[in-house]
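Deliverable D4.2, example record:
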Amino acid sequence: MDQRDSTRSMPPGSDALVAEEEKAQGGRTDDAYGVRGATLGATADRGGSGKSASEASNSIPSGSSQQRKRLSSVCDSCKVKMQLVADLLLLSSETRPVMASDGVPLADTFDQCRDTVIARTKELSILTHDIQSQLNMGRFTEVGDRLLEMADLVVSLTECSAHAAYLGALETAGCTPCLPGLVDRYKVTRCRHEVEQSCNVLRITPLLDLTPQLLLELSQNISTNLRTLTDISSLASDRCRDRFPKEQFKMAVKSMCTSGTAFLACVKEVKTQPSELTRSRCVLFSAALVQAVSALVGFATEPQFVGRPAGVSSEGKGVQTAVLGGAMSVVSACVLLTQGLRDVAQRPDSSSKMADYRERLRNSACAVSDGCTLLTQALRERSSPRTLPPVNVHAVN
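Output generated by the structure prediction step:
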């Protein structure tokens, strides 16, 4: 079944979500988030102007408080995004392949993954230098735009690294491949976290900061993730042989879509009639949506639906740990870089601590480069560079 077939089989209520998003975007349904994922703030501002977020913010004087506030918000969303994907893929105790949005593995061979990851590390180095250059020139809008690109790149690098770790482990003796299930645990779990994060942003953001653009981005993010959950669950329902799970998937999706429709109606209302009352309604109905999504994902990730992870030997575990460890060093450094950018954005240039913050930022950029080197070595050697014997050291008799 292709995606169009699964969309046609959606239970009542999910069509309303898609229609609501199309109306908000003027008839467009660009996949701004989804499993590829762009963070909050990356979506184009289509609320009538037709300009992108960067084009709209370019009219603001460079280094203004609005630009600093936007950069700080972008830093928060990018940090959460990178940490989430790392938690789900790099810190997981299970050995599973990473699938693309069309349901096929990211790559067929370890060498393909290795080459892709190494190419990503080179792109990351270029972006890191560009971010520092733009920051030194006081171009906070451009820094935010590059940071969004960096977060997407880190997510792609993390996914490819996790898949490479799986394939590398599988090539060692004594390993058995993963048995696919009806549901991709990584995809649905990430969707749940994305919805929770968007609802949390709405809950903690002051009313004055709930701009039409931010509200549009939040509703787009939520709609896209609900649609992804609907597609995955509908396909799982069609493939179920037992009557109970087949019907339960449908009812869980219907509950989620109904809650989503009610929530999006509240978001639309706070956009047209901003007040603490309309905002509190959003918070109220977001709780029901989060609960419905959590119930669906909890059911969908039961053991009988997610398949069986690969059986890995000690040698395979060593390869996997080396690659995942290298990727984690890159993600950790990028998170530190993002935190450093946030510190700079939240303080005036005249701050007595600004020199320290900029020094930390430079150190974080160096750590990104070091992490990329470690990851590249781990992929080429299939072992951790930290455990390899030193180069050019001869044994002493």
